[in-house]
């Protein structure tokens, strides 16, 4: 059996983006953007359309130049030779439609200074890994969009990159494709490769990523591990389900307790500072049998909405972002 293309060490280095600014005329696409991606970290880069994610990735890959700031890898500025060791998957796919997948990947591997045999073997292994063993000699245009996506990812992996920059890599993939891609990326990260990917599928980012950066209108509005962002959020939420004649009304009578979600079995409540959760439990027990009582952890989607909304509010009122 041919070994997986992820066998063996690659090495580990850190990606640093420091105060990067990019302007297009009067439009500020990136405004002093700074964050760090650690070796072996799965890093989610999230934001709305037009937030600046693609511009930042293009700057890392040398496809665009910043007006100010610096990008470093392994502690040094990135030059052409260093970028040749990166893997990049652009949002606008760059495959040759009439070229068979295997021939195309072999060619791209040769551009990354692999000999023909090594490039071909790695391309075959990756295509097999992505379930395309029986399609590798077909023109890419004959493949479904999801399979073209798999070929595009394989193109970013063939040369064993030391950094992966992936712009919306999960777009258009079915659940099986998402699982296959996720497995490969996690393997790369386990070998010390920083993996940066953008995605609008925040539940997927939350499941896969060690850390995230949230960007809005070119500015970083939050960054760190998801659990760290939850701690910074500071909101105390409880889910309480009560089996009784009034599973909701009891909560509306408590001072410092605000109902956020209500349904036929119970509520999610927000506690103000100083409110004792045991007092909330006692009030719920007085209303009926408590079937569920637990803290609610905000999802990445909820954290995202909150920090972006706060940034918009601060911008509109002239406050600090």
Task: Explain the overall architecture.
By secondary structure, this protein is an alpha/beta fold. The protein has two domains: 15-224, P-loop containing nucleotide triphosphate hydrolases (Rossmann fold), CATH 3.40.50.300; 236-295. 36% of the residues lie in helices and 27% in strands. The protein has helices at 53-60, 80-83, 101-111, 116-129, 145-157, 175-190, 202-208, 226-233, 249-252, 277-287, 300-317; strands spanning 15-24, 27-37, 42-46, 68-73, 76-77, 86-89, 163-167, 195-198, 211-216, 219-224, 236-243, 257-262, 266-271, 289-295. The strands form three sheets. Strands 6-7-8-3-9-10 form a six-stranded mixed sheet, with helices on both faces. The protein has a four-stranded antiparallel sheet with strand order 2-1-4-5, covered by helices on one side. The radius of gyration is 24 Å and the shape is elongated. The chain starts with 14 loop residues before the first strand and ends with a helix.
Write a concise keyword list for the protein shown above.
321 residues, alpha/beta, Rossmann fold, 2 domains, four-stranded antiparallel β-sheet, 11 helices, 14 strands, elongated
Quick synopsis:
This protein has 321 residues and is of the alpha/beta class. It folds into two domains: 15-224, Rossmann fold, CATH 3.40.50; 236-295. It contains eleven helices and 14 strands.
Q: Any guess at the CATH architecture of the largest domain? A: 3-Layer(aba) Sandwich
Q: Quaternary status of these chains?
A: single chain
CATH topology (fold) name of the largest domain = Rossmann fold
What is the tally of beta strands? Answer: 14
Total helical elements: 11
Q: What form results from the Cα inertia axes?
A: elongated
The computed structural class is: alpha/beta
């Amino acid at each position: 059996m041919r070994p997986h293309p992820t066998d063996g060490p690659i090495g580990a280095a850190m990606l640093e983006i420091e105060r990067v600014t990019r302007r297009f005329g009067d439009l500020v696409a990136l405004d002093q953007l700074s964050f760090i991606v650690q070796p072996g970290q799965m890093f989610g880069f999230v934001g709305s359309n037009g937030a600046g994610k693609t511009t930042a990735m293009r700057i890392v890959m040398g496809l665009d130049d910043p007006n100010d700031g610096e990008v470093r890898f392994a502690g040094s500025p990135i030059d052409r030779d260093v970028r040749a060791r990166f893997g990049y998957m652009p949002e606008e796919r760059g495959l040759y439609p009439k070229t068979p997948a295997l021939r195309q990947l072999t060619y791209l591997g040769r551009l990354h200074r692999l000999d023909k045999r090594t490039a071909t073997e790695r391309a075959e292994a990756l295509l097999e890994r992505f379930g395309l063993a029986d399609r590798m000699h077909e023109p890419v245009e004959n493949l479904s969009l999801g399979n073209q996506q798999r070929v595009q990812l394989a193109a970013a992996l063939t040369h064993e990159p030391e950094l992966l920059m992936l712009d919306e890599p999960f777009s258009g993939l079915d659940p099986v494709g998402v699982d296959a891609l996720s497995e490969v990326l996690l393997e790369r990260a386990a070998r010390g490769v920083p993996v940066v990917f953008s995605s609008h599928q925040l539940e997927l980012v939350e499941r896969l990523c060690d850390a995230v950066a949230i960007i809005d209108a070119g500015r970083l509005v939050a960054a760190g591990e998801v659990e760290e962002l939850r701690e910074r959020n500071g909101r105390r939420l409880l889910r309480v389900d009560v089996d009784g004649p009034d599973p909701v009304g009891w909560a509306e009578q408590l001072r410092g307790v605000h109902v956020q979600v209500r349904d036929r079995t119970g509520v999610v409540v927000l506690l103000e500072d100083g409110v004792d959760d045991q007092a909330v439990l006692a009030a719920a027990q007085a209303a009926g049998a408590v079937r569920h009582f637990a803290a609610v952890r905000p999802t990445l989607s909820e954290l995202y909405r909150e920090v972006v909304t706060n940034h918009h509010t601060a911008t509109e009122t002239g406050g600090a972002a």
